[in-house]
Every structure is written in C-alpha cells, then in structure tokens.
C-alpha cells in the first residue's frame, strides 16, 4: 500500500518534471497528473485521459482544420446542391456531429473560434495554442469554401437588418456555447458531445437559417465570404460580432450561476 503510493507519487513527479506541468492535489491526498503542456482539462475530465500525453500542437491544429472543413464542406455543400431547408439543416447538423466525433480525441473539437476563445478564457487552452487553433479553423473552412466556389455564404435575409442579424447570431451562439459549457461540466463522452453539438446546430439551422444562415461560427462564415466576396465579405462582421458576443454572454451566465451556488 504505502510503498505503491510512494512509487506512484515518484512517477508523477518525474512525469511533471519532463512535461513541465504540475500535479493537482486531491482531497484524498492523491495526485492527478496532467501531461498537456497546452491546456488544462475540465474538472470532470476522465481520469484515464489525464495520464495520456496530448498530441503535438501541429496535429491538433490539423484536426481543427479538418473538422472546420468538414462543417463547411458538408453544410455548404448541401446549399450548393440546392437542398431544401430541412436538408441544409440536417447536413450542417450531421457535419458538426461528424467533425466533433472525428476530432474530439485529437484536439478537443472546438472547430469554432467562438468556442476556442471561450475555452481560452476558462483556462482550458493557452493563448498561443488558441491562436493556432483559430488560424487552423479559418484555414480549413476557407479551403473547403474554395472547393465549393463560395457556396453557402452567410447573409441576412431580405428585411433582416445587420443589427438584427447580429442579435440573432448572438442568441444562437449563446445556446450553442451554453450546451458546450454544460457538457464540459460533465464526464462527457465523445459521442455525447457530438450528438449535442450536432443536434443544437441542426435545430437552429432549421428554424433560423432562413433569417441569417445560422452560422454561429466565424470560421464557417469567413471561408465562403473570402471566396464569394461582395456583400458576404462586407457583412462578415455580423458573423464575427454575433458569435463573439454570444460566447461572452454564455460565460457571464456561467459565472452568475456559479456565484449563486457558492
């Protein structure tokens, strides 16, 4: 018993020394060792994953780029094919589901600059890594948009002002980020995370897609806007400001709830 515990603690200290991380003391005196030099796992992160070394940053960025490309390729691809609204919504939902499912283990499956910024604020990822993630997401989305020749660019519908579109995107992104934060607080599974994210995106795309395109993701809007140009590029700020404010609102609500529970 005691000899094994000492051996485990010695091994933990050695691992910390090699990886430059600190063990986290628990109430029972044990130590959870994280080997991730870039991010801090959520409180309820499974213990078995705490002892796994993370993928190199370049591999995680590749996963983020791939996931963003899947979202744009699948969702905007449905637009390019002339799918009905329910088909576009289903395509975006399934694309998000697939993107999260394939990249969760490699990068955490942010796939969205608003989510990455939120995780940076929460301390789950470092500044340099978050900047690399966002650049990768935008690159992946843009590459997919070039293949689709800019199809699926997000624009407010006729009669929807830029201000109203920003407000709609704010609330849509708030709902998505709230779901992400809720999953973060649980000992969540990869499949569960994928289903929640994909389901939220599909529902919001179905009901609000006709108004704003239901982007909720600056990278998803940036790629097609860069390729299509024109009005899509001029109104890109709507699809950056709205999701950014939605993520901030989700963080504020989280802080208020936690303060009330203390």
Automatic annotation (TrEMBL):
<keyword id="KW-0813">Transport</keyword>
<feature type="transmembrane region" description="Helical">
    <location>
        <begin position="57"/>
        <end position="80"/>
    </location>
</feature>
<dbReference type="InterPro" id="IPR034294">
    <property type="entry name" value="Aquaporin_transptr"/>
</dbReference>
<feature type="transmembrane region" description="Helical">
    <location>
        <begin position="86"/>
        <end position="106"/>
    </location>
</feature>
<keyword id="KW-0812">Transmembrane</keyword>
<comment type="similarity">
    <text>Belongs to the MIP/aquaporin (TC 1.A.8) family.</text>
</comment>
<feature type="transmembrane region" description="Helical">
    <location>
        <begin position="194"/>
        <end position="216"/>
    </location>
</feature>
<dbReference type="GO" id="GO:0016020">
    <property type="term" value="C:membrane"/>
</dbReference>
<keyword id="KW-1133">Transmembrane helix</keyword>
<feature type="transmembrane region" description="Helical">
    <location>
        <begin position="236"/>
        <end position="257"/>
    </location>
</feature>
<feature type="transmembrane region" description="Helical">
    <location>
        <begin position="160"/>
        <end position="182"/>
    </location>
</feature>
<keyword id="KW-0472">Membrane</keyword>
<dbReference type="InterPro" id="IPR023271">
    <property type="entry name" value="Aquaporin-like"/>
</dbReference>
<dbReference type="Pfam" id="PF00230">
    <property type="entry name" value="MIP"/>
</dbReference>
<feature type="transmembrane region" description="Helical">
    <location>
        <begin position="127"/>
        <end position="148"/>
    </location>
</feature>
<dbReference type="InterPro" id="IPR000425">
    <property type="entry name" value="MIP"/>
</dbReference>
<dbReference type="GO" id="GO:0015267">
    <property type="term" value="F:channel activity"/>
</dbReference>
<protein>
    <recommendedName>
        <fullName>Aquaporin</fullName>
    </recommendedName>
</protein>
